[in-house]
Amino acid sequence: MTVKGTLYMIPCPIGENGDPYDVLPMHNREVIRSLDYFVVENARTARRFLSRAGIGRPVAELEMAELNEHTPQQEVEKLIVPLLAGRDAGMVSEAGVPGVADPGADLAALCHRHGIRVVPLVGPSSILLALMASGLNGQSFAFNGYLPVKPPERARAIRHYERRALTEGQSQIFIEAPYRNAKLLEQLFSVCQAETRLTVAVDLSEPNEFIRTATIREWKGMACPQINKRPAIFILGK
């Protein structure tokens, strides 16, 4: 009987600056060097990460398949064929940890259905880093992904998550496309109650990292950071 391979969920740095092993354990390098088949969200950024990570061989020699939000389900199923034949694989997201707010979750789910071992490796998650530094409730929290784009629908979503934060004490985490950050922040100020606490965490793990938690009233009275076109996490709390 053929022994099935293992899928390693390999984090990569959130930012572009510095050595990957400033934020990744050295054990990850050992795993990466043992692999020659990778499923990646973006081939260009994955090649750059693997090269910087010191994979120990030309990146051009690696077999690399893309898995992103545009990949049809039948193509996802083809990605585990090497694993079913006994070959190990690495899953690499575009930034941070694969499988969390990331299409890598589809591959992990498929592996579980076929009895393939899935091994998560340690690395930075912008969601957890923001929560760690926020001072908000870290025992009960929800990650809600992206809010609606249209302002009326986004306002309803903000009120919904604020209500949960205030009545249940559950921290409500969400993200936005970087070029819409300023509009979202403006709407948070206009929709939320004065004493609701808001965390804004920008450029996490980068030299220009910014993290601040304050009430909406306090935010309105201070000079707001320039967050447009910068990766950000937002958290509403009590």
CATH H-level superfamily title of the largest domain = Tetrapyrrole methylase, N-terminal domain
Total individual domains? 2
Helix and strand succession? EHEHEHHEHEHEHEHEEHE
CATH topology of the largest domain: Cobalt-precorrin-4 Transmethylase, domain 1
- Tell me the number of helical segments per DSSP (H or I, 4 or more residues long): 9
Q: Which architecture of the largest domain per CATH?
A: 3-Layer(aba) Sandwich
In angstroms, what is the radius of gyration?
A: 20 Å
pLDDT averaged residue by residue: 94
Characterization of the model:
By secondary structure, the protein is α/β, with parallel strands linked by helices. The protein folds into 2 domains: 115 residues, Cobalt-precorrin-4 Transmethylase, domain 1 (3-Layer(aba) Sandwich); 112 residues, 2-Layer Sandwich (Methyltransferase, Cobalt-precorrin-4 Transmethylase, Domain 2). Helices cover 34% and strands 21% of the residues. It is built from 9 helices and 10 strands. A 5-stranded parallel β-sheet has the order 3-2-4-1-5, sandwiched between helices. A 5-stranded mixed β-sheet has the order 6-7-10-8-9. Helix 7 crosses helix 8. 35% of the residues are buried.
Keywords:
238 residues, alpha/beta, Cobalt-precorrin-4 Transmethylase, domain 1, Methyltransferase, Cobalt-precorrin-4 Transmethylase, Domain 2, 2 domains, five-stranded parallel sheet, five-stranded mixed sheet, 9 helices, 10 strands, 34% helix, elongated
